[in-house]
Amino acid sequence: MKWLIDAQLPRRLAVRLTDLGHDAIHTLDLLRRNRSTDSDICRIADASGRILVSKDRDFLDSFYINGTPSQLLWVPIGNITNTELLIRFESLLPDLQEAFADSRCVEMTLAGLIIHR
After folding, report:
1. pLDDT class for 2, splitting at 50, 70, 90?
2. Contact call for residues 62 and 69 (beta carbons, < 8 A)
3. Which of 1, 16, 55, 93 to pair with 83, CA 20 to 30 A apart?
4. Domain boundaries, given as residue ranges, for the chain
5. CA distances for 96 relative to 65, 72, 93, 102, angstroms
């Protein structure tokens, strides 16, 4: 899978996904780095076929209102450690792969995944 990790999430997530065989980049890897606008991030994710991973509610709103990003993993899990986030993400990867086979928007909560239709 191809991922674009937004600024509020750790770069370590992109590194870990890459280690697991995925194609993952962080906004720090973009030309404007973390100064990239939301519209730039959506455009880059859509143009490169990446699932945008973000905690930012604005992207969920944009998904429903504007249809972009074309694929979104919204992660409104509050304050957990980066290590906890990496463990949770890795444990849910098989479920995420299955979820994105049928849906374009998935929410990762502390309780699990919510598929948005």
Report:
1. very high
2. yes
3. 1
4. 2-116
5. 23, 11, 5, 10
pLDDT over 90, % of the chain: 91
More confident residue, 117 or 99: 99
- The 72-74 sheet, strands edge to edge: 23-26, 2-5, 51-54, 72-74, 105-109, 112-116
Provide the residue count of the chain. Answer: 117
97 neighbors 72 (Cβ within 8 angstroms): no
Sequence-ordered strand ranges (E) for 1-117: 2-5, 23-26, 51-54, 72-74, 105-109, 112-116
Kindly calculate the radius of gyration of the chain based on its CA atoms and give it in whole angstroms.
Answer: 13
CATH architecture group of domain 2-116: 3-Layer(aba) Sandwich (3.40)
Helix (H, G, I), strand (E, B) or coil at 70: coil
